[in-house]
Amino acid sequence: MIIAAFRFYAELNDFLAPERRGREFSLPCARAATAKHMIEALGVPHTEVELVLVNGKPAGFDHLLENNDRVAVYPHFRRLDVRPLSPISPSFADHFRFVADAHLGGLARLLRMAGFDTLYDNYFQDGEIEEIAGLGKRIVLTRDRELLKRRAVVHGCYVRETRPAHQLHEIFTRLNLAPQVKPFTLCLGCNAPLRPIPKAEVLTRLPPSVRERFERFCTCDICQGVFWEGSHWRRMRELLDYVISSS
Questions:
Q1: pLDDT score recorded for residue 30
Q2: Measuring CA to CA, which of 129, 210, 212, 221 is 20 to 30 A from 100?
């Protein structure tokens, strides 16, 4: 066995046992232990880490720890680009695509509302999400830290908030999504593109009050839903405007 010292910064401390938060602590490690193995053994998913320093120098997840190493672990930086220094985490894609776990249906719908391709099914199992993320190069959204530790999950976000609107704000802030918003271009239920449709083609499918008050409509070719800028649309627009302005 060897002994290595660890220090986790900022929100990464949320994953640690209380007595290890905000301080350096030492642990025995197997001689073949890598930085990633020890970081995840302590409860921190690799997707939450952007920079690892071993004895003050950037190191990869596969770095083999040695006796008396001092390991500093940092979360994703919001205001500083450290990618040239860090060998551990490929940058997030320029065009964000997500897959959400079974507990984040509300967040999935709000991300679709903002125009972000987001796969979600209440029956997705962890293995399916891992496969979908790997094949589609999608960012995994979850409140299950064990899912983010899976080998094939390259990008992921542990969602701390519990209410969908707050979760949307959290993800917008962390990933700087505001510049890529394309609101109301995807179906909230199907994740398929919406397209404009003439009022005459949907007239018989509209409630009388909607026929009288609205002229612009769009539809989803998958679920055949028809949408217009009513009170529900206005509430979502207000939420999105707030999230964009405050993230």
A1: 92
A2: 221
